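Exercise: predict the structure of this protein bound to zinc ion.
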Amino acid sequence: MKIKNLILPLFASLIISCSSNYYSMEDFPKVEKTDAHYHIYSAENNSMEQAQKDNFKLLAINTFSDNCERVVDVQKQSAELLKNYPEDFAYTATFCLNAWDDSTWVDNTIAWLDSCIADGAIAVKVWKNIGMEFRDKDSVLIMIDDPKFDPIFKHLAGKGIPLVGHLGEPKNCWLPFNEMTTKNDSNYFAENPQYHMFLHPEFPSYEEQMAVRDRMLDKNPDLIFIGCHLASLEWSVDELAKWLDKYPNTAVDMAARMGQLFFQTRENREKVRDFFIKYQDRILYGTDIIDRSQEKESFQKRMHETWLKDWEYLVTDHKITSNLIDGEFSGLKLPKEVVDKIYRLNTENWY
Ligand SMILES: [Zn+2]
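Solution:
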């Protein structure tokens, strides 16, 4: 009896130590993964083809960034894609703001979103044009805590449909180029000066954007909220941790903010790694890749390389360099169960 008590646990621990607690680069095609933030504005399907090769499912974050016709077109196209790939594709709906000043806007928007959800949309996206661009008939900038949104967000909360928000911008957006921490930000704002808030001091500050978003969450405690791009708190895992603690009904995707994670990892790898382990149930992998009928071969190569590079950072402790920041840093080598959550289970749970 005594011997059995000793030997059995010994044998069990031997079995556990034989199967590694970490994934390797070779595991990349074998592990089921989800890119929880990409965009498709193309009738061809180059992204899904590559996703299937790399064992990814795709979540398209449809966004109102242009015009209302496009919102309708993208919704139709996404519903079609869902029919063709019911297991491997999902998408968010969005809504158009053009008729904001009409008395029927709220009711029409709720009816529109309900029809999108009936067709298969699993969440609703709001974008930074709320707070940084869109104005009502009196030229007042509309913010996300505007009371007019309340019945819509209440409706979504009641149905358990998550709101996906890209609100505000990375903190770099309010800084001059020479103070920006990552090259993806300096490149983006060089190409999009209309969104470079350092040049537009008449717009709300970074702190105001964050405060407005939080006032909206305070009003809607039952709303599930997915903060795109690390909830625009990409510059500090400490600040992001505080925010996640304050709002338990939230998760974040890391789309297009790997540069800020790399930057903080270069400064203090253990801190970033501890953050991922502590908040392993609240972080979703995503890239922000846009499929817009680019040349097929180079687009698919870029998708594959982006996914592989991020995998290397998250699962190995290789020394890594990136065109997103200067210098070298080591991968986080997260345990398998954390990787599985970030790459798949959290998306399934939160959406
Ligand atoms: Zn995006």
